[in-house]
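Illustration 12: Transporter.
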Amino acid sequence: MTGSPMAMPLRIMHRWRQRMSGVELSILFCVTAVALLVVRHSPAVPVVTGALPGVSVGLWVIAALTLLHVALSLMTVVAASLLVAGGACQWPRFRAFLIPALSVARAVPGLGLIGICAAVFPASVTIVLVAASSMIWRIVTAVLDAEDTLSPALDEVATGLRMTGWQRFWRLQIPVAVPLTTFRAMQAMPAFWVRLLAAEGLMMLMSHQTNEGCGAAVLHAMLDHHPLRIVEISLVILLLILLVDQGVMRPVLGWAQRYRPEGPIEERPRPQSWLLTIWRRTKPMLWLSGMVGEALTWIGNWRIGRPRSILPEQDSGASPELPRALLPGISLLLLIYAVYHAGLLRLVPSDLAQSILTLSHVCETLVLCLLVWVPLGLLISERKPALRNLCRSAVAACALFPAVLLYPLCRELGLNSAVVLLFLGAHWLVGIVVLDAAKAIPSGLRQVATGLRLRGFLLWRRLLLPAIAPELCGGLLTAVVPVWNAVMVAEAFVPSDSGLGATLLSEVLGGAVGAQILALMLLTLLSMLLDRLVLQPLAVNAAQKYTI
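Figure caption equivalent — predicted structure in token form:
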């Protein structure tokens, strides 16, 4: 736990090129430029004209529509993840491009894609794509991470058995990746619900259809000033969240444990699912599971591709390396040309000013989460284990609730601050991180601190804060994701339209696709800068100095 306080800021300033990859910037700039060149001739068609229809739809009808969107989104996630991850495992060149592309996709606020998708796809397809985007990059990244941890012995066995590329992917890499992918999917569920409900509400405004699901019904009730209707729909949404969590995610998470390699010490109990237990004890369900297993085995026996050669691959020679600044520089020039050709240069100064305000909202939200949960979480960790576990379960359950449903209530209460609205969705994840980090403090260190009679501020300074610092700083990387997802809606609820998120929402409702692309690119760039230049170095520095 040593080091100069200036070590990390100097390292950030001197190594910014390692923190921010030029390939990632090039991908972001080139994709934005191509999109602007494609849509430069598209007219801006306003989508909010006239009054909304006043047809009331039954609660169970809108619940069924939302449940259908959930099912289609999850199937889209599985299909797209298998397709992309399979291509990355089969073609190394595609994998080399995919890794920085996934890093850029992680920084894209998925809700900002709704206007672009709505210009191409129908309303239901747009809702499904926006909701699925919160999981696809997580699942694909988990598969690639699991491949990197694949045992060399298993790889040699697969090569010796002359497995093709498809067989190696389906029968070796996917089983190894199942525990990590299911865990990442569980982490993505809060952002999934936020994007799904917000997309349903925005598509109701854009298509003038009230039968788009629970999100559209909540927004329609808010515009009609029916608080009782909002409460009813919120209860239905809670029921849907519980149904999906207990009926889909928990059984899948419990089933995935069969693929987890056993370690010498099992510190945490494995998750259990009552539905999975009933499934395994029911003969018709066991018969169905056997049929599905045989089908998956049959798919895994397909000999697609060529077997991997046993001989080592010959190196064809190193290709000449381009200067680091050349590729980002060329892509930046292409972006400037595209912005000029689309007639959007007049929007750049105002968007840059709004982006600074949005960045301040996000940073203030993270600071507020830390100020609330660090002392609260450490105080809870000093209580009895039963109370700690109860609080941890309650916080995890609250994290699943979409905070966007509380925005109308906050507006009625006069809480018209974007920071407060963003805090409602992000602080639960920070609370989970703090509680888990405090629980992981070794009991031996606590006994030593008790023997030395460390109490109060001295105990926090010498033991508790340094002990939770690595996991806390790493958890901020996850906690900031829902903040960027909700920034567009949160800033729009503020009476004075402030921030790039509110600007992007007004452009979505105005039908200006080119302006949407520019604002979305700036939001993505802000997310990448905060992640690479602040949060990642902070996590690395904390891990190097304070890991026990």
